[in-house]
Amino acid sequence: MKKREKLAIIQKWYPKAVTTIDTINFIIDFVEDQLDLEPKQVMLADSVCSDDVNSIQYPVRTQEFLGPFKMGGLNGFPFTGLTGMGAFASHVPDDGAVFIYYGPHIGITKDGVLGEINRVGQSKNTSCCGAANGALAKLQNNQILLGNITEIDYQMNTIEQMMLAQKDRILTAKTPIFETTEIIYEAIDKRINELVEATTYHCKYVILVGVILINSDSDMGSFTEMRRFDVIDLKTNKRTDQLIK
Question: pLDDT tens across 174-213, in order?
């Protein structure tokens, strides 16, 4: 299948999506051309789901950056918190930059089915993101209890509470799993920005790239719809929006 044919399937749901490889290529070009830095001066942290498919479909060119430091747990929420952000911030070259790539993920099969993918070696589709789909099923069946966050399933319970707080919005949506992913993106974006505000960095820039990460079948690869592309100049504390509208 040609690249344009793959994009046509993905863009029915996410009109501004491009391949994740093209996203990383774009960011590397920006770092080199606009910030006058080499990728090895940039420490990458990602806050994406710990699902194995995200490692399988991770673009090779990310290895040109330092890292990555892994901030994300289930569906990309930055469960490493302030301690993780602080640890990561202390690893950055003094003359370099922090690059944080974050957001939830969702699957789209080559047949255009949302919330599923066909994984390597499997004959049947499986859910993606499994945590989001599982929490949605519990929400639809009134099985999420307000305030129920347990030690044994802390991350999943946290996702469930996010969704419970937006129950009406999800259940009245035309496509609940799409809306669920939007809500989780908003929660991740808010938390990442809170963590950045509370952290001291000893480098030149902080680059924030908030996305919907879209997985597809094993022969399709992954795609990214960028929602935020901010650059913070730490010398002036000025934040600029670099997102192409």
Answer: 999 999 999 999 999 999 999 999 999 999 999 999 999 9
**Rounded-to-integer distance, Cα 156 and Cα 77, Å:** 10
The radius of gyration computed from the CA coordinates of the chain, to the nearest angstrom, equals 18
Per residue, what are the HEC states of the chain? CCHHHHHHHHCCCCCCCEEHHHHHHHHHHHHHHCCCCCHHHEEEEEECCCCHHHHHCCCHHHHHCEEEEECCCHHHCCCCHHHHHHHHHCCCCCCCEEEEEECCEEEECCCCCECEECCCCCCCCEECCHHHHHHHHHHHCCCCCCCCCCCCCHHHHHHHHHHHHCHHHHHCCCCHHHHHHHHHHHHHHHHHHHHHHCCCCCCCEEEEEEEEEEECCCCCCEEEEEEEEEEEECCCCEEEECCCC
pTM of the model: 0.95
Separation between Cα atoms, residue 40 and residue 226, nearest integer Å:
23
Q: Is the peptide bond before 129 cis (omega within 30 degrees of 0)?
A: yes
């399709």: which residue's tokens? 220
Tokens of 211: 């996305």
pLDDT tens digits, one per residue of 143-156: 999 999 999 999 99
Asked if 203 contacts 93 with a C-beta cutoff of 8 angstroms, the reply is: yes
239: Cβ–Cβ under 8 A, 6 or more apart, which residues?
A: 230, 231, 232, 233
Residue 134 amino acid letter: G
